[in-house]
């Protein structure tokens, strides 16, 4: 069985696994200047180590942090960027949906996320 498959068996979905690291709430960096944006964080390092322990390959902390940015787990847009407020509002709506436990939305997001992970072929 693939590492992702074992995570799905254990926790129900890869979505729950990955969002569990940030308590199901997107992290927001309030950066003013590009030099303030990091290429990895301690959270990305912890996720990377856990993924490697579970059998994933090619998931170093920088790769994991890039994934966190792209998937909306972290918002590193500069506060002057036109996308910053949009991403902040989107994160807020995701948080509200999680709080109301909208099962249909959660299942659809989990399936889409799992499909994207399958296409990446990061497993051994």
Automatic annotation (TrEMBL):
Q: Where does Zn(2+) bind?
A: 77, 81
- BP GO terms, sorted: base-excision repair
List, alphabetically, the SUPFAM superfamilies matched: DNA-glycosylase
Transmembrane segment boundaries = none
**Which protein is depicted?**
Uncharacterized protein
This protein's UniProt keywords: Metal-binding, Zinc
Gene3D superfamilies per record: Hypothetical protein, domain 2
